[in-house]
Design brief:
By secondary structure, the chain is of the alpha/beta class. It has seven helices and ten strands. The two termini are 20 Å apart. The structure holds adenosine-5'-triphosphate. Keywords: ATP-binding, Cell inner membrane, Cell membrane, Membrane, Nucleotide-binding, Translocase, Transport.
Length: 218
């Protein structure tokens, strides 16, 4: 049984088909790059994966069960996402990063937060900063940290390095690679052809909402 299985999934809005008849199997441990021109439906595919939106046709199964039947809060713990425009509460970095603990009724683990700052080579002094005082690249890294405070089964990443300089892109790539090596399934959208091939074992190319190719490269 595949970890995540799309069967003939379509997503239509305002008489426009944004994803058309997508069938795809994602196995545990996969690192899937999703590539394609702007507006081809890549982000929509990730939104479908975590039930931010529902297919208008077809089915998505997670662990063999209909994804639409999962409790959304429970699903977010297993399938975590980080998008291009990081959504963070207009609050402090600390409150953003402590939120995943609150959600699980668990005490905040300061060691885990320190570990994350170390992995992203950022200072923990950022914890007391207001989100609005962070740069775009800092916000991106904090949003990514928040999505992996507790390791999900699947991590969905939408152009998470687009606001980063070369050095920080490398840091983030290494964190993502290590997560995949630790068994986390990664689906990521990137516009950078070199990046799309560097870590992935599969590359999905989509155009106008349809699969152009699914290539296994490792
Ligand atoms: N809920 C929606 N309602 C109406 N149109 C939508 C909706 N979601 C996406 N679209 C449209 O569908 C198309 C695909 O959007 P999507 O964000 O999935 O593309 P993308 O491949 O991720 O693009 P980019 O690379 O520019 O981020 C776009 O034209 C977008 O405007």
């Amino acid at each position: 049984m595949s970890l995540l299985e799309f069967s003939h999934v379509s997503f239509t809005r305002e008489n426009r088909t944004i994803v058309n008849d997508l069938s795809l199997s994602i196995e545990a441990g996969d690192f899937l790059s999703i590539v394609g021109p702007s507006g081809s439906g890549k982000s929509t595919v990730l939104r479908l994966c975590c039930h931010l939106i529902s297919p208008t046709e077809g089915t998505i199964h997670f662990h063999g069960q209909d994804l639409m039947r999962f409790n959304p809060m429970e699903l977010r713990k297993q399938i975590s996402y980080c998008f291009q425009m990081p959504y963070l509460f207009g609050d402090t970095v600390r409150n953003n990063l402590e939120y995943p603990f609150l959600l699980r009724n668990k005490p905040v683990d300061p060691d885990r937060l320190e570990e994350l700052f170390a992995a992203f080579q950022m200072s923990t002094s950022n914890l007391e900063k207001e989100i609005q005082h962070l740069s775009g690249g800092e916000k991106q890294r904090i949003a990514l940290m928040r999505s992996i405070v507790f390791q999900p089964e699947i991590l969905l990443l939408d152009e998470v390095t687009s606001a980063l300089d070369v050095a920080n892109t490398q840091i983030v790539e290494k964190v993502i690679e290590a997560l995949n090596q630790a068994g986390i399934t990664i689906l990521w959208i990137t516009h950078n052809p070199e990046q799309s091939r560097k870590y992935a074992n599969k590359i999905l190319t989509i155009d106008t909402g349809e699969v152009r190719s699914l290539e296994a490269i490792r």
